[in-house]
């Protein structure tokens, strides 16, 4: 089994707000992230896929294909966008880094063919990242 | 849905690697420059990985502010800008980064209950890093 990791970056804005909580409770739970005007990050995404090396191509995955999928599902959908307002999955859930990793996993898992997803790692900041391995 | 969250913190400390169970010559042979009697220091980058189910209410594994506060209180207050050899935690333990990772793991395992502690990873320099996940550690 070989693991291959591809990295990409995107910049987006978001805020944290649970409509079932009062604004005061939202501020208590989410701190500065509850500011409804939003704020932004430069996110770094690392996608790790795994598989056996194809004897004909020597590839675990066709990198061009992986790059296109990342571009369509993540960069086009999220780069320079407002996650709460422009990414449909976040109409009903809070765009924390945890949920962002899960949403990206679900989007990529639908599109990948030969290689299997192993890990989605999303850096919100250089000192904070979330790993998701597809565990329900 | 279960996710892993990692937070990175920087702390500065000094240490000297020296074992009372070895002779002076053996200490020098084992630890090299790290056995310098006056000690030396590092900027340690400590990565704390916790895991848990993502709460449907908050979208979070745990509240980062709680983790930050626990790390500040339990780890920064104890170890930042200190000489590790002078501290009770290392009175009978050589302050290698292996042992430092295990000591930090034990403290956070005891003090941080809001999520499952998976791993402590410490970069002692850009070239050396150490990970401890809670397994038995004495050979």
Blueprint of the fold:
The complex is a heterodimer of chains A (136) and B (139).
Chain A: E1 2-14, H1 23-30, E2 39-51, H2 63-78, E3 81-82, H3 83-86, H4 97-111, E4 116-125, E5 128-132
Parallel strand pairs in A: 1-3
Antiparallel strand pairs in A: 1-2, 2-4, 4-5
Helix pairs in contact in A: 2-4
Chain B: E1 2-15, H1 24-31, E2 40-53, H2 64-79, E3 82-83, H3 97-111, E4 116-123, E5 129-132
Parallel strand pairs in B: 1-3
Antiparallel strand pairs in B: 1-2, 2-4, 4-5
What does this structure look like?
The complex is a heterodimer of chains A (136) and B (139). Chain A has one domain: 6-pyruvoyl tetrahydropterin synthase/QueD (Tetrahydropterin Synthase, Chain A, 2-Layer Sandwich). Chain A is 32% helix and 32% strand. Chain A is built from 4 helices and 5 strands. Chain A has helices at 23-30, 63-78, 83-86, 97-111; strands at residues 2-14, 39-51, 81-82, 116-125, 128-132. Chain A has a 5-stranded mixed β-sheet with strand order 3-1-2-4-5. Chain A is elongated, with a radius of gyration of 16 Å. With 139 residues, chain B is an alpha+beta fold. Chain B contains 3 helices and 5 strands; from the N terminus they run βαβαβαββ. In chain B, a hairpin with a 5-residue loop joins strand 4 (116-123) and strand 5 (129-132). The chains are: A alpha+beta (136), B alpha+beta (139). Chain A binds chain B through residues 16, 18, 20-21, 29-31, 93-99, 101-102, 126-133, 135-136, and chain B through 1-9, 49, 54, 56-61, 63-65. Strand 5 (128-132) of chain A pairs antiparallel with strand 1 (2-15) of chain B.
